Amino acid sequence: MNRPHYQVMCTWGLSGSQRLSVNPDVVIWVNALSQSAPLPLQLDSFPGDSKVLVGSYFDAFAVADWVANYQLEQQRRVIVLIVYSDAETHNVADELAAGAIIERLAQQGLDAMSPEAAVANAAFSQLRNAAAHLIAASEQAQNITLRDDELVLNESLTSADVRVLR
Is the Cβ–Cβ distance between 123 and 99 less than 8 Å? Predict the structure, then answer.
């Protein structure tokens, strides 16, 4: 499905990004559970010549700020595709992290959301005060050890702290 009228879209896993017939300006690979997790695939797996960022719950606002700054630099509307790292299950942790990114994007005017992005945004907006607890208690978090700082939405990070892979 071609969705060029949406500025911010979400999908699950690499297969989801390939299924959408869209060439985004920015792809954000979201792994809520680790700000330092390696990207488990090749960068050329993403559509076109998109900028590719890695985001987590920890740096969600900085990632959104990077995108807003990139849009200003480009002097045009950019299309953003947020890809949840876990395509196998409904990943609550990644959805909340994506929602945090989308919330910040919306605050900066990037608010033409696909239905999937709107749901992630609403989930984060309504559950913001419980998001860290929900991420820690999620099925995805049960078999890993999380550092305390991974469960903090760090609002002091800047665009310079964002992992830009391409």
Answer: yes
Residue bearing the bigger pLDDT, 28 or 38: 28
pLDDT on residue 1: 46
Residue 130 near residue 150 (C-beta atoms within 8 A): no
Here the tokens at position 48 are: 């076109």
Q: H or E segment at 119?
A: helix 115-127
- pLDDT by residue (tens digit) across 81-94? 999 886 666 788 89
* Cβ proximity of 114 and 10 under 8 Å: yes
Q: Determine how many CB atoms are found less than 10 A away from the CB of residue 118.
A: 18
| pTM, to two decimals | 0.88
The sheet with strand 8-12 has its strands ordered as 8-12, 80-84, 26-30, 51-55, 163-164
Cβ atoms of 101 and 144 closer than 8 Å? no
Tokens describing residue 55: 């985001």
Q: How confident is the model at residue 129 (pLDDT cuts 50, 70, 90)?
A: very high
Dihedral of the alpha carbons of 143, 147, 153, 159, in degrees to the nearest 10: -110
